[in-house]
Amino acid sequence: MSAKIRLTCMDCGQVNQFPADKAEASPVCGICGHKLNDGKVAKLDLKTLEKAAKSDDLPLLVDFWAPWCGPCRAMAPEFERAARSLSPKVRLAKIDTQSNPDATVRYNIRGIPAFILFHRGREVARLAGARPAAALEQFVAEKLALTK
Ligand code: ZN
What we know:
By secondary structure, the chain is an alpha/beta fold. The protein has helices at 46-55, 70-86, 101-106, 133-147, and strands spanning 4-8, 15-19, 42-44, 60-65, 91-96, 114-119, 122-128. It has one domain (39-146): Glutaredoxin.
């Protein structure tokens, strides 16, 4: 009945735990007050990404990008649109691989933009190349349906 759900704060890295029925009711971080599930694209560093990928009970779609990458910048609004659309079932975040070069090694990223979908502590699927929001949403919906 009172299942607990874990969500990593994208701001301070704290793993928050609360009743599952609160997960979609705009929960905030118990440490810093940052909103945990507001449909906005969070910016991650590698440490927080690893924690969220491992701990989170909600699916997480991560955009590996860099400021020098034209297609990455061009599709940023599409990624933001997908984040609003998939909220509150899925959280979307991005990691700047120029500031976090270790992330490309850790997740074996060969080209950007690249997207990895994490759920229940593991990588579910990945997608390479710029996509419109609708294609991202479809990718997430299909992959999550497969893992149920
Ligand atoms: Zn926090």
